[in-house]
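Folded chain entry —
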Amino acid sequence: MYFSVYLEYTEQAIMEYFRHIGVALSETIRDGSFDWTVVHADIDYLRPARFDDLLHIGVRVLRCGRSSFDVEFVIAHPDREAIHAFGRLVLVCFDSRAGQACPIPQLVREQIRKFEAASW
């Protein structure tokens, strides 16, 4: 699998994370209150994934700043218990209508805090 695909899969996993914690991205993106752009990516590749491999991607939010947040991720093969890649992304809350960074909405912060506190 081409290396950049890991980041595409991680982006999808982040979208599912927010769906799971109750943040309606279809609404927040449309109204400009919550979307993100990646400003930094660290990724370590440990082993290649192959065509048709089933991969599990775990994500968690490690830190929320005023407008940025850090996401840690792991990409693994569940049957082989093998980690393919792991890393960290720095995302900035972005208002695509205004074309600039904006503060993370309080509702999003609360949903993240509740979910991450329950996960530990």
User: Anything to note?
Assistant: The mean pLDDT is 93. The chain has one domain: 3-119.
